[in-house]
Amino acid sequence: MLAGGNSEILSDEEKRAQYDKYGLEGVSGDDVGSAGGEDLFSMFFGGGGRSRRAGPRKGPSVNHPLKVSLADLYNGKTVKLAVNRKVIKGTPVQCSRCKGQGAVMEIRQLGPGMITQMQRQCDACNGQGQKCTYKSERKVLEVHVEKGMQNNDKITFRGMSDEVPKMEPGDINFIVQEKDHDLFKRKGADLLAIKEVSLNQALCGFTWKIDHLDGRVLVIKSRPGEVIKPEMNTKEALPFVKVLPDEGMPSKGNPFVRGNLYVMFRVKFPEDNELPSAALAQLKKLLPEPDVSEEYDPMEVEEVHLNPGDLRSFGKGGASRSSNNAHDSDDEDGARPVQCQQS
Length: 343
Prior knowledge:
Blueprint: H1 7-11, H2 13-22, H3 31-35, H4 37-44, E1 57-58, E2 62-68, H5 70-75, E3 77-94, E4 103-111, E5 114-121, E6 130-145, E7 154-157, E8 167-168, E9 172-178, E10 185-187, E11 190-198, H6 199-204, E12 207-211, E13 217-221, E14 240-244, E15 250-251, E16 254-258, E17 261-268, H7 277-286, H8 321-334
């Protein structure tokens, strides 16, 4: 029999349904009453008055990866996906072993005359406090991929996970997994494309046609007199980059604001001895700042030539450290002071 304020539960059909499904926790809307002495204790001993979530507890959520192309993240897309969930069949009954507590007490002997009492999860009901049977239910969900979503963004369907006794069903989360693109690399709302140009194109101009993510065809042309350099004119050796404003990804929640499209250039120079002598002579006349021959006596100076190098080897020249360490080890372990013996 319910007395006092609990009589209201019986007269309200919605609250009655919540009570039948979740118990008193399902109809408790007062944080103070539901928290009881636990919150009062935590308020005085370091809890800071933390309030507990009102209503029934929530079951575990389920995450599913959702692989999405960069074009779909640019344009947005809705896909239908079928999921199978466990639904409680019939009415759950209280576990007779744990009396609905979800845990049982057991006594263990630690030694002669020493016993301890421990609480552990009930194996009969897997800690649920109730026993029930399940049936499989197939649901078709319409998953909307919003424009501008990024890798690891979450699309949530609340209360669509497996049903659990005395708990609200958890959520089904689809985690966006962005696929690699053949041309574009993405960072935030910006896109990056890499373009290799010949030395001729770098000096005289280039034309580059690309297919954008929304189906448009862009023709990128260099301006008259524009020169593509091997690297930026900065103290750091940065790649040479140009930008096309507002041609990046749409922003999530505000798709009309787009990022930028960055183009990083790589200038392909001719290989050694690839250009004929006549072409080199013409280039020397046409290009600015040709080499000026230095006057010197070959008998008084040393002429040298450069070999291919790798900057990753910078600082590793000279005697190797392993060789030096080996010599140090010999001095410490193998060498002994000379002793003189008098006869």
